[in-house]
Amino acid sequence: MNCKIVFIGAGNVATNLALVFRDKGFFVRQVYSLHEQSATLLADKLNCEYTSDYSAVVKDADFYFYCLPDHVLQTVEPVFAHTDALHLHTAGSVSGEVFMGKVENYGVFYPFQTFTKSRPVKLDEVPILVQANNRRNEEILLSLAKLLSANVVLSTDEKRIRLHLAGVIANNFTNCLYRLAFEQMQMADLPAEWLLPLIDETARKVHTLTPEQAQTGPARRGDMQIIDKHRQLLSTNPNLLNLYNQLTEQILDR
Amino acid sequence: MNCKIVFIGAGNVATNLALVFRDKGFFVRQVYSLHEQSATLLADKLNCEYTSDYSAVVKDADFYFYCLPDHVLQTVEPVFAHTDALHLHTAGSVSGEVFMGKVENYGVFYPFQTFTKSRPVKLDEVPILVQANNRRNEEILLSLAKLLSANVVLSTDEKRIRLHLAGVIANNFTNCLYRLAFEQMQMADLPAEWLLPLIDETARKVHTLTPEQAQTGPARRGDMQIIDKHRQLLSTNPNLLNLYNQLTEQILDR
Predict the structure, then answer these.
(1) Looking at the predicted structure, is the pLDDT value of residue A2 above 90?
(2) ipTM of the prediction
(3) What CATH number is attached to the domain comprising B181?
């Protein structure tokens, strides 16, 4: 806990990780962002130093977290810190070896959650997948991650990318469905928030039932009459109709 | 509250509605199901009479709730009760006039929620859409529904079917995505329940952000490199790959 952490990036992931580390008693030494406004915003929350000048990033930290867009991670030059420093990225689908040959100690620290700056989230149950360039660093990262979450595992690139894909389906795509459902509410001239009890119950159900057990609806019952009524409603929106048909097929196939 | 209610059907909807009415102080007079086991199961919970003989359904109730599969509703002969009785179905996409010409007083009482027998749910915030064959019955149903929920509205067939479609998207299809994500977890050799913090946060987010604001992920960022990695993982599953592409397009199009 005496170790010093620097965050490279001040977006959704950096903000949430930094706040959790701070709350666990870690010392966030500095925040860097290309965008000074983002850097100050996060540094204010943490009451720590910040910089928007990459060459001014401090060299004496123990952990450097690179919370950067994936394409930036591919090319970023790691901070020229002391050789014991551990350089970590937090991305779901970027190789664990992007820092190979550039620094001595590197790895991945991937918290499996959807992060938004404005919504600090707890990590207690959030899976954290770690990878590192040697056994010693793996142990360090496992210990570090276990201070934040009960669900920690040593990973590989393959496992992490597969998990990321599961996350895209369960979060990004689900949220996209929420948007499409909200749009139907608007067309029905009903308040979109009337969907929330249903959305909540849908999520709660899979805590105690498998998704197979929780599945209901016309496709589950094979009720083609209702399905045809819904298709008619979507006849003016071929993309959505196509999506409706695909998801219906997925359920009918079971 | 002195009125008597009979449930025709003892499935997910009947079970949940009957328990809520009972808890609100109503008298559930009798439960009918073709399947005696279902009828006794619900009658035991309610401590009321049951029958699996349709001709033995009591004639003196005030409300008959037909919680039946959609195709059965199209053809069911309503109970030969006294003429003041109000005959209601609870389906999302069945016409409000299926009982027209068969009984004097009829309508729709559609609670917008996903119901499972084993999970009694509260209806306090659950939207209830009502329809009836005349103004007086509309008023009766609006009053009745308002005893159960804060979100009650007089509907039309069009509005209700559109809401049902929104529900299919937000519940049935979302649950289908949960299943597909669970399957990816299995392929990654990770516990499926590790998805739950993400699923929960995804649902919570749209309480305070719009789905547009809550959208994250590679498609939101237009990160084609990651999208291509995920496509490779799905190359052996053309249906899922097709679905991945469609949902990705929906997000990219924004």
Answers:
(1) no
(2) 0.95
(3) 1.10.1040.20
